[in-house]
Design brief:
Layout: H1 3-7, H2 29-51, H3 61-68, H4 75-92, H5 104-114, H6 117-130, E1 135-142, E2 145-152, E3 163-169, H7 176-179, H8 183-193, H9 197-203
Antiparallel strand pairs: 1-2, 1-3
């Protein structure tokens, strides 16, 4: 019997940080049933199957993402690990009755980097709407500055240096049941009513 295989634990699907209906009407419980209960779960389940017997079997998801990024031989593992990590980060980027005034240090950095909170939101919206096809828009910390970046498919700034603070999922499964092709309406409603500035502030300065 392989003792290492017995001791290794499968990567778990993290629980949602809110009730499944708590983001309605911006994001419906129906969307979360599919987005979290099927899409996110499938990434986690597939990742667990792919890493059995590999050097990644006992790594946390974040470490797997970093170890497999831009490695063609491990593309399947990277895609599922990155999507598992991105989705867990996305759920934390949202909260019921979100939006509003960011915490003081985050607001100060927004003002220094973009000119203000509204300007930061506009940059996030622009990036999220402009991302061609599937992907993500991110608020990141790069040194003493904040930046907005977008990534395609499963790619994530986690592998490139800047510290992710929050993200917006713009894969169609994130919004199509509620908004069909109106991505701009989904993005702007999320930024106005669900974005979790407190989570972004907690990530400031973290390694």
């Amino acid at each position: 019997m392989n003792t290492a295989a017995v001791l290794s634990q499968p990567i778990a699907l993290p629980p949602l940080p809110f009730d499944q209906g708590a983001l309605a009407p911006v994001i419906s419980a129906n969307t979360l049933t599919f987005h979290y209960g099927k899409h996110h779960k499938t990434y986690v389940d597939t990742l667990n199957k792919l890493i059995v017997g590999t050097e990644f079997a006992d790594m946390p998801v974040e470490s797997i993402v970093k170890a497999t990024a831009r490695q063609p031989d491990h593309a399947g593992i990277f895609n599922n690990a990155a999507q598992a990590w991105n989705h867990a980060f996305y759920w934390k980027s949202l909260r019921p009755k979100g939006g509003g005034e960011p915490p003081a240090e985050l607001k100060r950095l927004m003002e220094a980097s973009f000119g203000g909170v509204d300007q930061c939101k506009k940059e996030l919206s622009k990036a999220a709407v402009a991302q061609f096809g599937s992907g993500w828009a991110w608020l990141v910390q790069d040194g003493e500055k904040l930046k907005v970046v977008k990534t395609a498919d499963a790619m994530t700034p986690l592998t490139d240096g800047p510290k992710p603070l929050l993200t917006i999922d713009v894969w169609e499964h994130a919004y199509y049941l509620d908004y069909q092709n109106r991505r701009v309406d989904y993005v702007n409603a999320l930024l106005d009513k669900l974005v979790n500035w407190e989570f972004a502030a907690e990530n400031l300065g973290k390694k």
